[in-house]
Structures are given as structure tokens and as C-alpha cells.
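Researcher: Watch the backbone:
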Amino acid sequence: MEIKFQPQGVCAKQIIIDVDNGIVNNVKFIGGCSGNTQGVAALAKGMKVTDIVERLQGIRCGSKPTSCPDQLAKALIKHAM
């Protein structure tokens, strides 16, 4: 299943996630801090949705109340759990 999510409050404009049977196959951030989003995407690949949410939910970016990793967790909660 492909999920296209519009994040809020971060630099990334879109997150595209491929999920099958509760496992994330691929994540692509459109925009955002390239190195950080590529790193998060690489780490999420092959992980269970529940594990990703548990690890990333609530992470903040500086003084912002959210971050790209937190927005990935929000996308998975909304569309894959």
C-alpha cells in the first residue's frame, strides 16, 4: 500500500511510504533536510510500523512541536495502524 502524507509544521512537503503487512518497504521525503530524511528513511526500511511509531513519535525539531520523524509516525498511525 502506498501512502502519500502531507506533513505539517516541518520543511518536508510530502512523505511517500510503501507499507505491506505491517512492514515499511520504503520511505521517501520530498523536501526537508536531505541527509536527515534520507537517514530516517533508510533506518525505517524493513521495520514494523509499530516499532517505527514507538521510536519516532514525539521527536521534536528544535523549538518546533514536531519533526520529520514525528510526522512519519503520524502518517503511519493515520494510514497503517
